[in-house]
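Researcher: Here's the sequence for the chain we discussed earlier.
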Amino acid sequence: MQLTGIHHLTAVSANVRENYRFYTQVLGMRLVKRTVNQDDVSAYHLFYADGAGTPGSDITFFDWPVGPEQRGTHSVCNTALRVTGKASLEWWAERLSQQGVQHSGVLERDGRLTIDFADNEGQRLSLIDDAGAGDPNTPWDSSPVPAEHQIRGLGPIRMSVPKLEATDNVLTKALNMRQVRQYSLNEGKEYPVYVYEMGNGGADAELHVLVQPDLAPAQPGAGGVHHVAFRTPNEEEYHGWTRRLRELSIRTSGEIDRYYFRSLYFREPNGILFEIATDGPGFAVDEDPATLGESVVLPPFLEPRREAIVANLKPLT
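Model: Thanks. This is the structure I predict for it:
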């Protein structure tokens, strides 16, 4: 079995209105699902993606009233978003400046052109040139970003661990990822980064592991990442992953039906939360594709509580 790439990444926001503005109006992503955290219905779960909510294109947020994340290791520390070509990155550098977003300018890292920046809560993001690789995206017609420059999907996810060995063992032996190269990252000092790829590889199917043995563990909070999810194409392989992790004595959540996809959660040895998620059924299972994200939708098991749940949610605008 092979995981085929990054499915989604879920982060934390304590300012949901500004979060909505930043991802839809600054980054030009579409809100494709306006729902709630199924384990904590007091919180929104917002999904931003391409125009169709293509698997692998969504960055999602839980709306929790918490303080800022305290940076450190044992955490996901950067989320890359894919665009295509140097011209797009140069366009984005100008746009971010016009929007008052501080950024690194266009630089090269790990052989790819990149722009580093952060959202309003310090969520660490990058735009990278994917050279057109990965699944085709669907532009969002109402985006303030021209179709040729729109974000195509998630790129490499970078996580920080104090020691590599145990994490490497899970990535390669349990998840069948391949360690393919290494580069250095300067964060006040030089640290090694090990690149693992899934499936056919490429920017949409990489996990970058930064080794920082001298840092304290991160403390969760706004501007931090809750978990990263990897793609599996169908339910047959999803059940296969459940069996595989059980056989390897890796404790999991058990299979969970999230209605829009099936989920399986577990923690790698440094405590970072991973998820394996199916590509389907998808976000159009309970909404017209033309109006995705325009109203609060709930999975069937929460519908009887709709009135109380919706009354507790903040307006996004």
